[in-house]
Amino acid sequence: MSQPLSPLEVKLLALQPLSLSIGEAARSLGESPDALRRAAEQLREAGLISVEREEAKIFEYTPQGAQAQKDGLPEVRLLIQLAGGPKPLASLPADLARVGVGLARRANWIEMTAGSVSLTEEGQKVLNDSSRFTLPSPDSLSSLDQSRLPDLIRRGLVRERTHTSEKLSITDAGKNAANAPAEKTHYVESAHHESVSISEQTSIVKEVGPITRELMLSGGWKKASLRRYDLSAPPEVRTPARRHPIARVASRIRRIFLSMGFEEMEGPLAESAFFNFDALFQPQDHPARDLADTFYLPGETGRPPTTLSADVRREHEKGWKYSWDEKVARQMVMRTHTTAVSARTLYDTSADKSPRKFFSIGKVFRNEATDYKHLAEFYQVEGIVVWEGATFGHLLGLLKSFYSRLGFEKIRFRPSYFPYTEPSLEIEVFHPARQAWLELGGAGIFRPEVCEPLGGRYPVLAWGLSLERPLMLANKIEDIRTLYRNDLGWLRDFPIK
């Protein structure tokens, strides 16, 4: 019985001693690892070599981690900046104000007072021994303290992957074939992908792989010895295109709102501080406006509508007792919530006194460090009902209807506080797998100080939720970053519940 060999397989079998990895064999023969891997698999099936596969976990820096390894961790660089004493938050480099401040505050390394940042006693200790927080070179990453690796992985600075190595070893049958007399083991390479086989008596058999156009025209395929196909090999899996889980959930929520008679509203991602903060009765010294929480853009927006600006000024100076500054309101920000879209919609539709219902699904941006439950950008879902006859009971009924259609059967409400609604509440749903009540969104009635300047429509029912949170709850996802990884296998297999 003959054992068919291609020219590359003969060359691979001739490597002595054959005890190499795929990469080493490829470099030795000047071939690609993929071609060597296919040839090795053929020889393994013929019993001429054995292939031993070993898996090992390795750690490597992400592009963000490589930059941090080069420049230093942002929270440590921040401590170095503060070594000479307190500094105004606005004077810090943008990346330190955006990431370093949040991380250092959580670790209790800094404290903030009236817009100034200073070291705490714990921060001074860390500064004196900052070498503990130096990241090693990429080659030495595996030697890093194992207690630090999970934190670096969670922050997206380090990733873990499985490295598979394949070691080739020749079998006794392979040695016999490799040591056969040279005149009986020569082979002929041709344009027709011919190969030879070495039988147990080391006779030569010509063999053809793919049937080419030339073989078809010449009729040579009739006399050729065709290489056998392995019919037991699994077929190639064809995977159809699929929408991303977040896009699918967004589409489902959109259908629910439309079926309840809502209209979709839209607004800009780059928003004025006026509609993002001031029109929602949020004072200009509110902590949410700090650089540590909001992404600011260069330049200013145009002046807000004169009458609206005057009405917002009146409400702020009457309610918050300070001098309102239009220049602050004209700052450009990446919107921190889709409630800014609601504010614009209330103003744009103020002339229409008929009852209206609106919803919005869009991205919002928060200046905070990413971890397993926080992202710098994420989706938010907003709903408002504009009707003078609306009551708190209507709000509760709408919420029950919406969340039950979303798939949550047990729903309850509890009092809460939000800056621009009064009364306010949080929506909790019962999660059967966890046997626990989980917070899923907030709601309330817009305050008169919000509604009256934007057109005098009161009351306005409002609620919102994170788009990612119900998706995570329903599918037992603990890390929100999982939803945004470019893992095609995970995306193909992901079931929407």
Q: Can you give a write-up of this model?
A:
It is a single chain. It is built from 20 helices and 19 strands. It is α+β, with helices and mostly antiparallel strands and 497 residues long. It has two domains: 2-48 and 171-222, no CATH class; 245-493, BirA Bifunctional Protein, domain 2. Strands 10-14-15-19-18-17-16 form a seven-stranded mixed sheet, with helices on both faces. The chain has a three-stranded antiparallel sheet with strand order 1-8-9. A three-stranded antiparallel sheet has the order 2-7-3.
Write the layout of secondary structure elements.
Blueprint: E1 2-5, H1 7-13, E2 19-21, H2 22-29, H3 33-45, E3 49-61, H4 63-71, H5 74-81, E4 87-88, H6 94-106, E5 110-113, E6 116-119, H7 121-128, H8 149-154, E7 158-170, H9 172-178, H10 182-185, E8 194-199, E9 204-208, H11 213-218, H12 245-259, E10 263-264, E11 270-272, H13 273-276, E12 296-300, H14 306-319, H15 326-329, E13 331-334, H16 339-348, E14 356-365, E15 377-386, H17 392-406, E16 411-418, E17 421-431, E18 436-446, H18 448-451, E19 460-466, H19 468-474, H20 488-493
Parallel strand pairs: 10-14
Antiparallel strand pairs: 1-8, 2-7, 3-7, 4-6, 5-6, 8-9, 11-13, 12-13, 14-15, 15-19, 16-17, 17-18, 18-19
Helix pairs in contact: 1-3, 2-3, 5-6
DSSP strand count? 19
Read across the widest sheet, the strand sequence of neighbours is: 10-14-15-19-18-17-16
Contiguous uncertain segments of 5+ residues? 182-205
Radius of gyration of CA atoms, rounded to a whole number:
33 Å
- As for the number of domains, it is 2
In terms of DSSP E residues, the strand content is: 25-35%
Supply the CATH superfamily name of the largest domain. Answer: Bira Bifunctional Protein, Domain 2
Q: In CATH terms, what is the architecture of the largest domain? A: 2-Layer Sandwich
Question: The biggest beta sheet, please?
Answer: 7 strands, mixed
